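Researcher: Here's the sequence for the chain we discussed earlier.
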Amino acid sequence: MLYYLHLWSDVWSPLRLFRYISLRAMAAAATALIFSLLIGPWIIRKLTELKIGQPIRTAEEVHKLAELHRQKKGIPTMGGVLIIAAVVLSTLLWARLDSMFVGLSVGSMVVLGAIGFADDYLKVVRKQSKGLSAREKLLGQVVLAGLVAVVLCYHPDTRDTARKLLVPFYKFPIIENLGVFSLLLAGVVVVGTSNAVNLTDGLDGLAIGCTLTVAFVYASIAYVVSNAKYASYLQLDHIPNAGELTIVCSALLGASMGFLWFNCYPARVFMGDTGSLAIGGILGVVALCLKQEFLLVIVGGVFVMEALSVILQVGSFKLTGKRIFAMAPLHHHFELKGWSETTVVVRFWIISILFALIGLSSLKLR
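Model: Thanks. This is the structure I predict for it:
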């Protein structure tokens, strides 16, 4: 919205600054951060008054974990509404609202946030750790992914790039035209990312801290590929108008910092599925828009580790009757092995930063 003030730069020349992505990106991050810090206490208070508390797994489900997390019972959940509100407000203020990329990414965040909200609401009403069925959540994610893929694959500005298959550290497309398999790729990315973030959200500050590094990397990539000169130098596909995703990712970065203020140990609020599905969804859609889907496997390495630990645990138990980990997702394995919650979280943050650096290096090492 404020972008359009540059049209009045002939009246007051400093207004021309609102054209620049770098300025608007920094402003978007600051706006989302300040909004979160100011509104966060009010949202936490309202959630507490409504008794929207986090259901904790019972001792029958896993005795030791119930003991470790018993102090978390009753802490308000659905805090993801704060993240979504901060991202939406900041994006509306600082991004170009005529950008298709902005509509797809933020719209996806809101839709998946609504699915997560329904899931959280049912958990609170039923007073147990189960909400929507896996099939219901999967259906919503797949439908959304399909719509995003159709728009990207058939829009005249993106159809050629959207159908390519690119991998990190390799300068040429592996496949020039995926055809209908573009829909399958989009489904895997959106469903996989949203569920991976959801699985990671199990300790205070863990998922939102890892979101910070991923959002920063994709904000950087969006800025690079939107600039024809930078993209050519790094041998990346130039994607016009993708710079607006820098604003979106910066807003997510600021919102994540603001939420972490309240979510760090000991947490005053949890994001719930409202936040985790929304975050995973927007990251997946941004990766699709920038044609950096496989880079998300590296940059979001912690999310991948958490999801893989669940897949391996379930697969091993069904095939052999034995468990690989003390418990899945992976962060609970280390908890049950004696690591404190803060130790697990900080070490996973360090790993996330390492993955982010490896991901950024792929822009040059091609």
